[in-house]
């Protein structure tokens, strides 16, 4: 079995018959619905891989999840294997209105389809889910959870916070806790189209997984995109949102319940002994 075959089996779809926007959408949606976003290794102070084979082994062979640098490394490699040329871009996450301009701690993909159309794709933004968008000022898309997404050109190349801004308007319940208002556009992240070197991705991943100010160093997040919603474990709070259904929320009582929800709802099956080492349980009765 090739790596691409194993990946397609992991995300549960056949290889797209057309290398077009619809095919890209199908792959990215299946990726996010099958492979969870989770920062368990960050919270356990384990190294986060950015090399292709190490990421493949973790997310596909071991059936784990990961954060943006892992997800988009894998998605980039697999799209390239299908014939969709792409490269990795770096972004500044402005979701949740940080008090200062954040560093380049997120990544996404610029995909060039065989017909020449350029699109952004993102298999690893844990805060929300955005379908692929054409790289065009004012481009919009609606995701299955009912949220709208908009891409705006906001500056010249090399200016801060970036040349392009991704925004979202939708149910706050379909976010990782940072979403606020259904009826207002909220910034997600800003980016530009500059080339990146492998060392840039290593540096961004290292900061995001080790710096004392980084979000993933300070909170526990595990989530999975649903075709019509979002399910998450944020600290000890479990929530599930599906369009047209009441939001389900509850506090997780202990590590045994956390393990059950993580395996059954998110798709990450780890032993209690591993999860019990998370800072989440420090000081718990």
From TrEMBL:
Bilayer-spanning residue ranges: none
GO molecular function, one term: acetyltransferase activity
Family membership: Belongs to the arylamine N-acetyltransferase family.
Annotated PANTHER family: ARYLAMINE N-ACETYLTRANSFERASE 4-RELATED, N-HYDROXYARYLAMINE O-ACETYLTRANSFERASE
Identification of the protein by name: Arylamine N-acetyltransferase
Natural source organism: Aurantiacibacter luteus
């Amino acid at each position: 079995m090739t790596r691409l075959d194993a990946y397609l089996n992991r995300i549960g779809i056949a290889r797209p018959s057309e290398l077009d926007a619809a095919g890209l959408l199908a792959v990215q949606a299946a990726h996010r619905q099958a492979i969870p976003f989770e920062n368990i290794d960050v919270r356990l102070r384990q190294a986060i891989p950015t090399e292709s084979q190490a990421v493949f082994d973790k997310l596909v062979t071991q059936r784990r999840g990961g954060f943006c640098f892992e997800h988009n490394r894998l998605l980039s490699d697999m799209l390239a294997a299908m014939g969709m040329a792409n490269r990795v871009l770096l972004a500044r996450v402005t979701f949740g209105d940080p008090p200062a301009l954040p560093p380049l701690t997120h990544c996404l993909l610029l995909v060039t389809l065989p017909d020449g159309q350029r699109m952004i794709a993102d298999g690893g933004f844990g805060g929300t889910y955005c379908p692929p968008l054409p790289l065009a000022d004012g481009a919009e898309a609606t995701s299955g959870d009912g949220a709208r997404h908009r891409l705006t050109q906001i500056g010249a190349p090399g200016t801060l916070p970036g040349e392009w801004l991704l925004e979202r308007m939708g149910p706050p319940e379909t976010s990782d806790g940072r979403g606020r208002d259904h009826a207002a556009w909220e910034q997600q992240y800003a980016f530009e189209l500059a080339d990146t070197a492998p060392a840039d991705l290593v540096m961004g991943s290292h900061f995001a997984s080790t710096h004392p100010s980084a979000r993933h160093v300070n909170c526990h997040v595990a989530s999975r995109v649903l075709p019509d919603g979002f399910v998450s474990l944020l600290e000890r709070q479990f929530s599930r949102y599906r369009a047209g259904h009441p939001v389900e929320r509850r506090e997780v009582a202990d590590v045994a319940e956390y393990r059950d929800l993580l395996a059954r709802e998110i798709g990450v099956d780890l032993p209690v002994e591993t999860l019990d080492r998370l800072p989440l349980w420090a000081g718990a009765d």
